[in-house]
Amino acid sequence: MIALKPEAITAAHPNVTLSREDEQAFVALRRMLPTLEAFWEAEDVDQDEIDEVMGRLQKHWPRLFGLLLGLYGTQWDFFYHLEQILMTMVRGWRMRDEPLRVNDRHRINNPDWYQSEKLVGGALYVDLFSENLGKLREQIPYFQKLGLTYLHLMPLFAVRPGNNDGGYAISNYRSVDPRVGTIEDLRQLADDLREANILLVLDFVFNHTADDHYWAQQAQSGNREYEEFYFLFRDRTMPDQYEKTLREIFPTVRRGSFTWHDGMQRWVWTTFNSFQWDLNYRNPDVFNSMLSEMLFIANTGVDLLRLDAVAFIWKQMGTMCENLPEAHKIIQAFNACSRIAAPGLVFKSEAIVHPDEVVRYVSREECQTSYNPTLMALLWESLATRDTKLLRRSLARRHKLPEHTTWVNYLRCHDDIGWTFDDEDAAAVGISAFHHRQFLNEFYTGQFEGSFARGVPFQHNLETGDMRISGTLASLAGLEQAIEADREDLKELAIRRILLLNASMLSVGGIPLIYLGEEWGALNDYDFVKDPAKAGDTRWVHRPKMQWKFLEELGDDGSIRGRIFRSLQKLIEIRKTTPAFAGLEMELMETQSPSLVSYVRANASNRVIVVSNFSEFPQTVDSNRLRTAGMGRFFEDLYTGETITTAKDVHLEPYQFLWLHRV
Question: PANTHER family attached here (predicted)?
């Protein structure tokens, strides 16, 4: 028999009284125990395993029950779906290999493991980086040489032919794209990465499926059960009502959020592309089905899941259908399920929305980590303006996150750059947000006089003026322009900008993430237009194929690529051996120059002062400020090894940064 004792909670915590809802949760679970017991018996599960999973169920079930009750409790067959979800979790846990369970137990006892200074990430497309998963395994020594301990593989599951939105139109969550390998190849890669102490990160694309996914095919065949997995409309009445408050995501590709399907004679809700069908999470079958897919992916050996397009997963008439409370409940419910079935798994939120909305997805009970799009945008903004006032205001107001969570910081990724700073923050420092975004778009497409950037417009909406920017880190930072001009002074400045941005990402607090190719200065690849499946999407300009021949230059002291690689390698090594860079604790330090940003990172007894010059002109720091912030008179620059004294003011060269540790 299974022991289920909610009173054990009150015995362990005598000041805690179970709520009425918690009591109902345990009553519901007790009623499902016969189904569980039949499963244990059929699977011949030993008592130790039963006790382990039941302990987690007892801890997390009340939260999960409350979330599911709020989402689906009014449905007449709610308790049927509740039991289905329970059994999906238990089956998912049962399929989990022992090495993953060992990790689970370790992480339960070390809940802040993902806040370590030793985490440094890289992201890549398998086909562009190494052709396939087998060859990717051969590159693990390269990742170790660079210093990576976290590897994010862009979507690699089976996709529709032709345009598939860079892998985000998934046809089958349980099959790898045959061009890059098999599920077994993925499992072997996960095993090898685990042995090398490198975390594996994959995407969970759960807002939509491809139009050729099995569920979508069944809907197209008239299967009523699967028609209810999506949003289908016979005429434009409801789509027109919804679109009164919806915004267009890709306005230059298609207008509106609905696509007419001739075969079904229905309008289909397609937020992003016409071939990406939004899932209907009002249907508990959709939640349970996607939970099953999520646990399958987790059991391949994944450590973190990037939750794609989290803002869009719940629809409500009369709203933008973004960032709704139910969207948070869906993610929190997935989180509670993973705490039971795969407790070592961590979520990463991808919400490229207003900064106030980004942080609402971040908590231990929702997404423990989150992309930091505002930091990325404001680092580039500071380079363009040579003024860090907007960056400093954002760091002061928006860097802090709830306990047990952290940022994932990046300079470039597979996606575009959107200027997602807060308009009120901009106004507070004397900036007109609309006009400033226009300036930044002109600057980073090279249209502003004196610009060093070589970016490309993405989704330029002529009606609204809205635009985002495509381009590699090196091309946006001026290296492409410098090489074209064949000017050594411009090359030097471009390299300094690249290293300054990387030093900022690595030191500010959070997990740094490098889009691979940037570590040696990859430039824009304009040949993407030769591929019809990519020609209409300028983001492919910054997704170049890995040029392994260029890596032969990494040992060449005179090579630009070699210098960038070795410098970044050194920065990563310093970060991984500096405890102050763990977690998010960060205190801004005042400077006399608007071109400077400075902050103190502290952890236990370790303390580092970071000072960065976002200008091509020398700047000066008041030595007395360094003395009082660092509690010392002598400091070592961790990057150069130079000793800095506070007996006189400290000077920074163009785009120089300092990582100062007291000696």
Answer: ALPHA AMYLASE CATALYTIC REGION, ALPHA-AMYLASE FAMILY MEMBER
Strands 657-662 and 369-371: unpaired
Largest Cα–Cα separation, the chain:
80
β-pair partners for 562: none
Phi and psi (nearest 5°) for 90? Answer: -65, -40
454-461 contacts at long range (C-beta below 8 A, 24 or more positions apart): 454/478, 454/480, 454/481, 454/524, 455/417, 456/524, 456/538, 456/541, 457/538, 458/416, 458/538, 458/539, 459/250, 459/251, 459/252, 459/253, 459/416, 460/252, 461/248, 461/251, 461/252
Kind of pairing between the strands at 121-124 and 150-153: parallel
Residue 189 phi, psi (nearest 5)? -60, -45
- Measured between alpha carbons, how far is 9 from 20 in angstroms, rounded to an integer? 14
Residues 329 and 350: beta-carbon distance below 8 Å: no
CA distance 544 to 559: 20
* 350 noted as active-site residue: yes
Whole-prediction pTM: 0.94
Are the beta carbons of 134 and 187 closer than 8 angstroms? Answer: no
Annotated active-site residue in 165, 308, 415, 537: 308
Q: Which residues pair with 658 in a beta bridge?
A: 611
Q: pLDDT tens digit string along 430-456?
A: 999 999 999 999 999 999 999 999 999
Q: 59-95: buried (b, 16+ CB within 10 Å) or exposed (e) per residue? A: ebbbbbbbbbbebbeeeeebeebbbbbbebbbebbee
Each residue's pLDDT tens digit, 178-233: 999 999 999 999 999 999 999 999 999 999 999 999 999 999 999 999 999 999 99
- Which pLDDT tens digit goes with each residue over 48-94? 999 999 999 999 999 999 999 999 999 999 999 999 999 999 999 99
Concatenated DSSP letters of 587-655: EEE--S-TTEEEEEEEETTEEEEEEEE-SSS-EEE-HHHHHHHHTSSEEEETTT--EEETTS-EEE-TT
Higher-confidence residue of 319 and 623: namely 319
Residue whose structure tokens are 């060992």: 102
Q: For this structure, is 480 an active site residue? A: no
* CA-based end-to-end distance of the chain: 62
478 φ, ψ (degrees, to nearest 5):
110, 0
